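User: These chains co-purify. Model them together.
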Amino acid sequence: MSEAVKIVNLVKSYGNLVAVNDVSFDVKEGEIFGILGPNGAGKTTAIKVLMGLLDPDSGSAEVFGISSSEDPIGVKRIVGYVPEEQQLYESLTPREMFEFIASVRELPEEKASKRVAEFVHALDFEKYYDSMVVTLSQGNKQKAMLIAALLHKPKLLILDEPFSGLDVRTASIMKDVIKIHTENGGSVLLSTHIMEVAEAMCDRVGILDEGKLVAVGTLEELRDVSQREGATLENVFLALTEQEDEVREGIDQLREALAK
Amino acid sequence: MRFSERWKLAGIISAEVRFKGYLEMNPSNLARVKENPGKIARSIKSNSRFSTFITTALIFSLSVLTAVMAFVDDSIGVPQTRLAVGLSIFLVLSFVLLIFLNLSVTTGFFTADVISFPATLPLSKKDLDELSLLAFIRVFIAPTILILTIFPIITLLAIGPGPALVALAGCAATVSISIGALTKMSIWFRKKSHQVDGSRMNTLVRVSASLGLALGMVVAFSMGSWLPSLIHFIADLSTGMGTQGSSVLALLFPFSFGFLASAVQFGLGLPYATILAAVGASVMYAGVAIISYRRTGSALQQISVGGVSTKRTLELRDVTLSTKTVLKSIISKDLKLATRNIGSSFIFIIPLFLAVFLFPMMAGWSESEALRSLTALVSVEYGNFFAGITIISVMMFDTQGASIQAGLPIRSRKMLNAKVAMAMFPYVGSMILISILLSLFPLTSPLIPLIPLVQIPCGYTVALAVGAFTYWKRGGGRAVSISVVADSGMTFLAAIMGALIGIVPLVGYGAAMILTGNHIISLATQVLVMIVELVLVRSQVPKLLKD
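Assistant: Joint model of the two components:
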């Protein structure tokens, strides 16, 4: 199996803060790989370097052998990217937005129309197709972002916190899309801090904490590393990031405060 | 709830309104808010201070100017008419200023949820209504206080307590009515700018509304220059219309307050019918102002909890896509964004703004002698100054859509080319208008109007250089969005750069003129310098850009 993503000794700092500290991992072709970590762990920074949106201080990032820093345009051609922030063109309609995307990606009009029509029908998005984006709910905006990312049939789908704030229905659709994408040979790299999602969907996960990759592997491999046999990913995560005691203390304090 | 508590809480809400308004103007700051909230907070504070300073200066100067003209200038009608017209004009200007200077700021108020949190607190509906209104007022507290104080105080000192009291009542009524009108206009504009049905009529309404509002802002800012003519015009009109005409004018808002103040001061120096009309209409408008105050509170409470509904039944159209070339698609997208945003539409009226500004200058200079080429050079240089701001303004469109753009394979150069193409429209318009304006005056040479026309290609050089520099400075060479409002430092730098790059061919013209005194040789030198500069800029731009 070849590598869809290869990150080697990646370092990225913002002033004195080392956001990503000597991180290395890869994503195999056809697998769903999850980057787990609390807020501020460095997940988004790592993804932005991979997309060529940030320059690394050292190390390298590649997508299907294309260097993110040397050929970011080449990377973006084969990647579908859904960032964490939903900053869409609020004053455009999804139709206008997809037309812009299809034009920039130089997709054949007929093919793009057919593909967008299929997505719109499948995601029950017809009635929002000509409404201004600003009027859409968060779930519908996420659907629009997903269609935008999938329009060009990407080989790799990168989803940064794709389940944040989604309702049950949209979250379920998102999960289905991810599965179908990999069934068709695509690869997925997703970042999340929702353990249940990662446990249910990811073939392998990497755990980032304060910029460092604490562990990487399948759930079974992580259980072995953390010496938590049969534990949920949440417990494995807390053990590997050494947060178990901290969480326990916090809960005790909360219990006391609520009981007063 | 005590008034002091409501006032304090309204302050917190108005700060949130400013914050939301700021983010609405520049959504790309959403990411920066997380990374550097302190910087954003400082930026909002400094913008707010700047805006308050400008508004204060504008209202102060208008108050003083109107008062001087109304109370001192003997060339305008009789004293009764001067007082009536002076106060009325000030109230009209206050009305226009309050609406156009605050229309864009109030958009933050119509982003739902600004008052959702207080709505969860144990407060009555009446308290919430009051809170909404107070928060709304606090957004533009400075101009409100200035309007309510400066002119009445000047009237008190210059005329007496009676007219000053009427002026105060008139100002209060004007503030209340303009807040009501501002609310209605903001809601209407937000609806129009957020509704899309694909029809040409809807687009036309949207574009007209945007341009109308932008033009209104320009008029508001340039009031000082045509205030004397306006006062003369209204005073002459009032005198010319006789008793009946004055009485009809006294029925209109806000002239009723002006005539009432005059009646209080001069008593039967005014016709009896006019006094009656002024008293009756003033009482009526005072009532309207009170009703407006109450209704605005209630309307604000509703929309600030639920937001402005822009939903409408749309006919479902076929789910298809029509594609364009990359360059055309970026321009088409930017044009759509520009016509749906008040701030962005400003760039399209830059030529008009220049014309409004340059015409009196040319008229003044032509009074003593025929215009020389120096007038054309100065005018074109103003255009260059705005060209720097224009390219930054065009980049502002990308403050939306950061999530989409981050994943798209667009080369920075391609993006810059699209922005440059868009920035050329106002530049070409400006140069053509300057050329036409010059033709309206006596000139030392008929070739002078050619200077701005020859300068047109320089718009490309300015936009390309300033754009590439901005990408380099703010994005390390990558295509980034710039907010003219939020990044005032970069905007200033762009304006200076535009002026510096644009002046080079003009210096060429000037130097050749000094040396030869020949217009054709000077124009040829202008062209030559422009070509050299363009080649130089084109060779340097790729070094500044990065994908």
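Chain B is about 80% helix and 0% strand.
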